[in-house]
Amino acid sequence: MRIRSFSAKARKLDAPPGALFPLGDQIGFIGLVDWMHSQKAGLKVVNAARISYNREKQMMTDKDRDLARFLWVHGHTSPYRHTFYTFHWKAPLFVFRQAWKYQVGGAWREYEMRGGEPITAKAFDILVDTDKGCSWNEISGRYVALNDEFYIPKVFRGNPPHGNKQSSTQDALPSGFDHIAERKLMEAECKRTYQLYQERLERGVAKEIARTLLPQSIYTQAYWTVSLQGIIHFLEQRLKDDAQHEIRAYAQAIYSLMEDDLTELGVSKHLVTKKD
């Protein structure tokens, strides 16, 4: 009998099966890598609610779907905190800095980057939205040299001269704006900055210091484990029209990955975005 052996060495980080590529550059991705599936999400929500009456159901019905929707709409969200999902995503640093506010807690995970260098994504506690139930583990630039992968928009946007200063649109740029030239300029800037980063590492400067000159457009990766309530809360915030384009694209991808479970719960995209 031949026994198959498995290496204990951490595997390289690749896009998981079924991952979506929200920004269209085939670099950034998000995939659903694990979820609690001993009981379907919708059935778990309504059974968590019905335990107050010492009752449970074995099959989901339209009446249960109405109950699940009622619970969410009226803020009875604790039943939504019994089901968790784990996403593996790769995104520009600035997208993660917008997303981390939805996290709490941490754990240790071992990874390996290209080139075979082992790293540890250090755990950290971020006490934000603590009632949502989340955990976030991200590649650490303290322990590994970051890859030369950057998000470069194909179409640039400008801030409007009046109204919401946080918003940005292509129309806010001057007519005749040269998007191709701006893209080439941004690519050259990122390339030059990464070269300076490498040179600093070669001179012996610690990774935690050398990384400080890298732009927020650099790609990194994270594991995000989050409750069903936390996911819907994230979608409520980041599917809005005034959310930044890039994180809204990731939110749309998350909705697509979650659509079957959300449909079972009667939680439509219109309900999440408060459009119905």
Characterization of the model:
With 276 residues, this protein is of the alpha+beta class. The protein is 33% helix and 14% strand. The protein has 8 helices and 6 strands; from the N terminus they run βααβαβββααβααα. Strands 1-2-6-5 form a 4-stranded antiparallel beta sheet. Strands 3-4 form a two-stranded antiparallel sheet. The longest helix has 24 residues, at 179-202. The protein is globular, with a radius of gyration of 21 Å. The chain starts with 28 loop residues before the first strand and ends with a helix. The model is unreliable at 1-8, 104-113 and 118-132 (pLDDT under 50).
Helix-strand topology string: EHHEHEEEHHEHHH
Average pLDDT score: 82
Integer-rounded radius of gyration: 21 Å
Can you give the helix content as a percent range?
A: 25-40%
Q: Order of strands across the widest beta sheet?
A: 1-2-6-5
Instruction: Characterize the main sheet.
Output: 4 strands, antiparallel
> What separation lies between the terminal Cα atoms?
62 Å
- Poorly predicted spans: 1-8, 104-113, 118-132
- The tally of beta strands, per DSSP, is 6
Topology:
Layout: E1 29-35, H1 41-50, H2 62-73, E2 84-92, H3 93-99, E3 109-112, E4 118-121, E5 134-138, H4 179-202, H5 207-210, E6 219-227, H6 228-238, H7 245-264, H8 269-272
Antiparallel strand pairs: 1-2, 2-6, 3-4, 5-6
